[in-house]
Amino acid sequence: HEGEAKRTDLMTITRFVLNEQSKYPESRGDFTILLNHIVLGCKYVCSAVNKAGLAKLLGLAGETNVQGEEQKKLDVLSNEVFVNALISSGRTCLLVSEELEEAVFVKPKQRGKYIVVFDPLDGSSNIECGVSIGTIFGIYAAKDKDKITLDDVLQPGNRMLAAGYCMYGSSCMFVISTGHGVNGFTLDPSLGEFILTHPNIKIPKKGNIYSVNEGNAKNWEKPITEYVDNCKFPQDGSSPKSLRYVGSMVADIHRTLLYGGIFMYPADKKSPDGKLRLLYEVFPMSYLMEQAGGQAFTGKGRALDLVPKKIHERSPVILGSYDDVEHVKAFYAASK
Ligand code: AHG
Ligand code: MN
Ligand code: MN
Ligand code: MN
Q1: In this structure, which residue's CA is closest to atom 17 in ligand 1?
Q2: What atom of ligand 1 comes closest to residue 245's alpha carbon?
Q3: Under a CB-based contact definition with an 8 Å cutoff, are residues 183 and 15 in contact?
Q4: Residues with CB in 5 Å of ion ligand 2
Q5: What is the distance in A from the centroid of ligand 2 to the CA of 245?
Q6: Closest protein CA for atom 6 of ligand 1
Q7: Which residues are CB-neighbours of 333 under 8 A, at least 6 positions away?
Q8: Predicted TM-score (pTM) of this structure
Q9: Whole-number pLDDT of residue 59
Q10: Is 290's C-beta closer than 6 angstroms to any atom of ligand 1?
Q11: What is the pLDDT of residue 2?
Q12: What is the pLDDT of residues 55-83, one digit of tens each?
C-alpha cells in the first residue's frame, strides 16, 4: 500500500528541500528559491539536449572557451540558461562557470547571499553521439553579499553548502546533497517535476569497476599504473575488476555512486594537475562522494581540503567507494 500512497503523494524536489530547510529555524526559503532556479535551468537544458538534433543546435559555435576548447552550441546555450536563471533568482551574488573566463559579479540590486560554481554542460565531446551528458554545480554562502570579492569563491570544497548534478541520460536525473546525505530525483516528463526516486544514496563500500582514461597510461605516476595493473591482475587472488569509462564525468560518477567502484582523473607527466576543474567538477563530485560514504583523494590528500588559487584551476582526483580509494592511497603511501 505504500506504493499506492507514493503514487498520489509525490515527493517533488521542491517539497523535499522545503522539508529539509524547515529544520533550520532561521531559514527564510532563499535556498529553496535558488534551487528552484537551478532545477529550471536543468529542465531547460534537458529539453534542449533531447531536441538537439531537431533544433540544429549541434555542432561547433565557432568560439573557443577559456580552456582552449572549441565550444559546442549546446555549451553556449546551457551557460546562458544557467547564468540567466541564477541571476534572476535574486539569490546569488557571484557565479563561476566553466564557459566564462571571468567570474560574474551580480549587480547589487539583484544580489542574494549565494555563490554558485557550475559546469553548464559536462561531457560535451559526447553530445554528437547521443551519450549521457550533464550539469554540475556547487553552492557556497558569501560572508557579506555587499562586499563580495573573488576570494569569496576561492574557498575549499569543505565549505560548500550543497552540491549536485543533473544527468541528461536515458532518463533525466537530479542528484543533490545539502550536507545530510545524497538524494536522487528523476524527471517525470509528463509532470515536468523531479520526483524522489533514489532516497539516501549510499555508495557500496567496495566495488568491482574502475573508470579511467587508459589512453593516458604512458604518462601516469607509478601508484596509478600499479593500482590499475592490480585491477586487472589482482595480487590477492580476487577477481579482476571491470573497466567502464563514458568520458562524461557526470555519467561516470553517477554509475560509481550507484554501483560502487572508482573513478580517476589522476595527475600525469604531461598534466601534473590532471584535467578536471577544481571548483565546478572536482569539488561538487567529491562532496557528493563523501556524503554518500565514499572518499575523494588527489594523490596527496583529501580533495575537499584544497584551497583554490584560481577559479579555473585543475586538480587530479581519485574518488569512489571507501575501500577502493583506501587501496589507491596504499599504493601512493608505498611509493613515498
Ligand atoms: P567538459 O565537457 O565539461 O569540458 O568536461 C569534460 C571532462 C569530463 O566530463 C570527463 O570526465 C573528461 O573530460 C574526459 O576527459 P578525457 O577525454 O581526457 O578522458
Ligand atoms: Mn569543456
Ligand atoms: Mn566538465
Ligand atoms: Mn562543460
Answers
A1: 247
A2: 19
A3: no
A4: 69
A5: 17
A6: 123
A7: none
A8: 0.95
A9: 61
A10: no
A11: 63
A12: 666 566 666 777 777 666 888 999 999 99
Nearest Cα residue to atom 11 of ligand 1: 249
What pLDDT, on the 0 to 100 scale, is given for residue 50? 87
What single letter denotes the amino acid at residue 161?
L
| Confidence at residue 27, expressed as pLDDT on a 0 to 100 scale | 77
* Best CA proximity match to 17, nearest among 180, 202, 192: 180
Residue 63: per-residue pLDDT: 66
For the chain, what is the largest distance between any 2 Cα atoms, rounded to a whole number of angstroms?
64
Cα torsion 122, 329, 183, 83 to 10°: value is -30
Q: Give the span between the Cα atoms of 282 and 296, in whole angstroms.
A: 9
| Grid cell for residue 11 | 515527493
Question: If you search the block for the grid coordinates 503523494, which residue do you land on?
Answer: 9
Supply the residue whose CA is at minimum distance from atom 16 of ligand 1: 247
| Sign (positive or negative) of CA dihedral 253, 328, 282, 75 | negative
Q: Is the CB of 213 under 6 A from ligand 1?
A: yes
CA 135 to chain centre: 7
| Per-run averaged pLDDT (10 residues), the chain, 336 residues | 75 93 83 96 94 66 71 86 98 98 97 98 90 97 94 98 96 96 97 97 98 97 98 95 98 98 96 97 98 98 98 98 98 94
Which residue's CA lies nearest to atom 18 of ligand 1? 213
What is the 104 CA–ligand 1 centroid distance (Å)? 24
Ligand 1 site, residue 247, Cβ cutoff 6 A: yes
Residue 209, beta-bridge partner list:
242
What's the pLDDT score for residue 318?
98
276, 279, 314, best to mutate for ligand 1 pocket (most atoms within 8 Å of CB)? 276
Which one, of 226, 243, 187, 192, lies nearest residue 332 by Cα?
226
Residue keyed to cell 608505498: 334
The three three-digit cell numbers of residue 84, written as one number: 540567466
